Amino acid sequence: MAAGKGTRMKSKLPKVLHLLAGRALLQHVVDIAAELSARQVIVITGHGATEVEAALTGRKGHIAGCFELDFVRQEPQLGTGHAVQQVVPVLRDDGVVVILSGDVPMIRADTLQQLIAACGGNKLALLTIDFADPTGYGRIVRRGDTVQAIVEQKDASAEQRAINEFYSGMMALPARQLKQWLARLDRNNAQGEYYLTDIVKFAVADGVAVVAQKISDALQVAGINSPLQLAELERACQKRTALQLMEQGVRLADPARLDVRGSLQCGQDVSIDVNCVFEGQVTLAEGVRIGANCVISNASIGAGAVIHAFSHIEGGASDPKDLVEVGAGALVGPYARLRPGAKLADEVHVGNFVEVKNSSLARGAKANHLAYLGDATVGERVNFGAGSITANYDGANKHRTVIEADVHIGSNCVLIAPLTVGAGGTVGGGSTLSKDTPSGALTVARARQVSIPNWKRPSKTK
Ligand code: UD1
Ligand code: MG
To answer: What share of the chain is helix, strand, coil (3-state, %, to 5)?
Structure first.
């Protein structure tokens, strides 16, 4: 169910498209369905339907191997029962249906497996939980031990409001039964809505067993209605990730100051200092050290490499050539910026205020201070001096710079591409090169130094 408006988010973006750990809330729920090996996933959209459908269809190919993804629209939105009624035409008669909410993203697949087991193909299984204060939720009304009904807050008597056990919004039941019961819903209640929860009464009347599967982990049923709840759930979600990483042996300076907005794979003996953000797919090989305040997206960092504080590594996600690669034993930062397509081989050094874009640096190459390497192929052991840059853009097109092995580029040079600096060559500091240079030579391209003896400085006229 993803048709609701999410008024309290006070946002133009439909609520279910807000991000938790870098993924839309609804994407979390759909991914959980994938984990359950669901045969069919039907997303009920309404508010912002076009946007919501577009956000997920982008992923359709990604998950198409697991299940069929369908969308149905609910317009207008007349309650949860009305929402599920829209599904009837596309829902098959056999099998078990699991109903989930697009704004309850932390539910775990193993919990839902237990719920499906409790349904057993012929019962109505409700996921429930106890809260000291369940205000606003539908209460589980029992006679003896057996569940009789779910009564919504606004319809509940004082006695029913005192019940601590409530319905989480998730249930599992046979599709055939669901279809029959949906046809019997009405709007005779305090909110004038079609309540999905009314089907519990029909199950009881039809002699179908109703089981309440009670859990104790409140996080799994936490829904999001406001920016505050979203931020709180983000922290809870990040803590879960941090604990998983630490269980694998990753050393986090502070598990409360880590943000993983995608997937982070770590080898043995990885350490991560405070306030680092990881986005997209990031791999850190054995012994990698990440300094404080780094932002790292779509990158693979080789064994023993060190990323010093305040470095920004921003690989692209759409094409593997845009991934950033940092080789084993490389040193990056502090304050380095590696942009899409930066490929650093083993033992490369990229120091402070150095920007690298769509460039490869071969083993042992160094650019330690204040430099720009864009669209460059840099050979082994090259030393690229402080303040030097490749001028890769002529205002219309980008061109390549090739710096062959063992070249030494002095400080403050401008290499105007396209250009090749021949192997073993040296370029004098302050040179502006616009032509290829021969191997092994010293090339200097700047005004020759002259000194004028006894030079009189101009003096001030009145
Ligand atoms: C519902 C349950 C309540 C339960 C609570 C748990 C009903 C009648 N009540 O409450 O027993 O304790 O969830 O959170 O089911 N939605 C639609 N179309 C609609 C209305 C809602 O798609 O017309 C979607 C919402 O986007 C949301 C989900 O259904 O994802 C739940 O709706 P919400 O309004 O939050 O649930 P309640 O009615 O408050
Ligand atoms: Mg409601």
So the answer is: 25, 30, 45
pLDDT at res. 61: 44
The 10s digit of each residue's pLDDT in 259-311 is: 999 999 999 999 999 999 999 999 999 999 999 999 999 999 999 999 999 99
Q: Which two tokens stand for residue 266?
A: 């770590």
Confidence band (pLDDT; 50, 70, 90) for 67?
Answer: confident
Distance CA 151, CA 400 (A): 69
Query: What's the CATH architecture for 237-443?
Result: 3 Solenoid (2.160)
Q: Of 234, 168, 171, which Cα lies nearest the Cα of 25?
A: 234
pTM of the model: 0.92
CATH class assigned to 7-221: alpha beta
Is the distance from CB of 103 to CB of 16 less than 8 angstroms? yes
**Omega before residue 418 within 30° of 0, cis:** yes
Our mutation pick for probing the ligand 1 site, out of 26, 45, 80, counting the most ligand atoms within 8 A of Cβ, is 80
Binding-site residues, ligand 1, Cβ < 6 A:
1-4, 44, 46, 74, 77-80, 82-83, 101-103, 137-138, 150, 152, 166-169, 195-197, 223
Ligand 1 atom closest to the CA of 150, numbered from 1: 11
For 143-178, what is each residue's pLDDT tens digit?
A: 999 999 999 999 999 999 999 999 999 999 999 999
Distance 193 CA to ligand 2 centre (A): 9
Nearest Cα neighbor of 253 from 311, 292, 201, 299 is 292
Domain residue spans of the chain: 7-221, 237-443
Residue 82 annotated in active site: no
